[in-house]
Design goal:
By secondary structure, this protein is α+β, with helices and mostly antiparallel strands. Helices cover about 30% and strands about 15% of the residues. The strands form 3 sheets. The chain has a 3-stranded antiparallel β-sheet with strand order 5-6-7. It has a two-stranded antiparallel ribbon with strand order 1-2. The protein starts with 13 loop residues before the first helix and ends with a strand. InterPro entries: UPF0167.
């Protein structure tokens, strides 16, 4: 990540994921042009005119001022209130075809590493195994069809890759266009 940007425990490289990009746009919260702007989801009932700089995300001021969340906190059960607040209010979300959601492991939120295809996923066999199990549990009973689907990730469907912040295990879920 670029020097000088805030560090996000649960989204360690928001530049690589495309959630933050270089921009001359001014922040909707602090009204400063910091050279960087957030590009992904923000959930609020309020009208927001523009996007946020990474610093207003990191310190929670954007979420507080606009009473919103950067990720839908549904599904983040079993983690501490502090971790939940950090992910929802002080961590950049990410782009996804479906509603993005955060994975949990070892009673903590995981770190989002990015959207990947099969080639990248193979480097993380624990994530691939997790994905196979998850897909079998959701109804993929034909092993050949499942493997065909997985080997074609990156072509109309991709995987969202995460790493456990406690034990280092990689996990993933499928996002389909």
């Amino acid at each position: 990540m670029s020097a000088g940007l805030p560090v996000f425990r649960y989204h360690p490289d928001p530049l690589a994921s495309g959630s933050i990009r270089a921009s001359t746009e001014k922040c909707a919260c602090c009204h400063r042009g910091t050279g960087w702007i957030y590009t992904a989801t923000f959930y609020t009932a309020q009208e927001v005119d523009g996007s946020f700089c990474p610093w207003c995300i990191a310190d929670g001021s954007a979420a507080e001022r606009f009473e919103g969340e950067f990720i839908d906190a549904y599904g983040l059960g079993g983690i501490s209130d502090e971790a939940l607040k950090e992910v929802a209010h002080r961590t950049p979300g990410f782009h996804a075809w479906q509603d993005p959601h955060w994975l949990v492991h070892c009673d903590d939120a995981t770190a989002f590493l990015g959207e990947v295809g099969y080639t990248e996923l193979v480097a993380h066999p624990d994530a691939l195994d997790h994905l196979r199990l998850d897909l079998r549990m959701s109804g993929w009973h034909d092993a050949a069809e499942l493997e065909h689907f997985l080997t074609h990730l990156g072509k109309g469907a991709s995987a969202m890759l995460f790493r456990c912040t406690v034990c280092g295990t990689h996990l993933a879920y499928v996002d389909v266009s």
